[in-house]
Amino acid sequence: MENNQNFAGRFDWKLALIILLFLIVSLLAISSAQTTGQYASNFVLQQLVNYVIFAIIVAFVIYFDPDQYKKMAWYLYGFGIVLLILLAVIPASESGPVIERNGAKSWFSTPIGSIQPSEFMKTFYILAMAWVISKHHEKYFIKSIKSDFILLGKIAITLLIPLTFIMMQPDLGSSLVFLAITAALIIVAGVSWKIILPVFASAVAIGGSLLWMALYMQEFLEDKFGLQPYQFARIYSWLDPYSYSSGSGYHLITSLNAIGSGEIFGKGYLDREVYVAESHTDFIFTVIGEEWGFIGASFVICLYFLLIYHLTKLTLTLKDPFCTYVCAGIIAMITFHVFENIGMTIQLLPITGIPLPFISYGGSSLMGNALAIGLVFSMKYHYKSYMFASNDDDE
Q: Which of 57, 147, 154, 229 could form a disulfide with 370 if both were Cys (CB 3.0 to 4.6 A apart)?
């Protein structure tokens, strides 16, 4: 049975309106961030162009139904892995195809600008994970502890390949996003809590132990694991930024000053006084906090809550497991990005260089989000025809 509704009835207008609101917030915040004169480029116009490309990507992704993406999952995953391998093997240079920024070799240089493959790999990874979990449940219809361990093994293999290359760049922020997506999908996949609780508890214990060792056993980590003193600086500057105000703690201090000075109602549009480096990208939330205050920052956070609520509500209506897992992975990806980015600007979490979705300036980040949101639009657009379609995906 096919969907006989017209385009207007099948298109997700609510999601489109939410994205439009993010566009408005992004352009306002970026235009104000440019008043510092740190860069000569007009990032507002470039971000507007990025959003035009965003819309084109979404329109292209909507054209294909979820069945097609299920068949393409491993091809896209493989394509993303190839890009990560090329980043690892091609030497970085100023004029070459691979460029290095702030010690991370994470970008390709192209005629249209730099491209970060890990941003696209996040969506490719979600598709592959959704395929793995849905196919596993089709094979092991009756769940057991043994089948759950088999599933975790498949998930681990799917994760470790891209994670290894991303850690080699190194890109801690993107690595944490992959771990967050994996953790969410493990829970949604219905893995027994008899397995999840010990695994998650062990992960927390290991993370806590490493943090304690970084604070009180630096010499041991340097001698046994070859870690360098500068690698601990990010942790120290997070916990006590004022002791590192002239170095690694500078970004956090200026971020706290900017957001705190906005108070309740903010200073007003273009009335910023605190200089924050890279305020148009990773620290865009400081602009929002300073100019629009607690009220404006709360509005932006509520806008993200509205987006997550809408995506969750849509996910609960989907009948196909593959679509459900894809949406769950996208929700986890966006949620972690928001939590980490805002958290790092207010000292809740360490600074990791993760952009604020749909608001921070950045072509790769926005294009990666376009792929993810495009999948959601596709599932809504093709929902009824897909709901009654044949489940024979292997023909």
A: 57
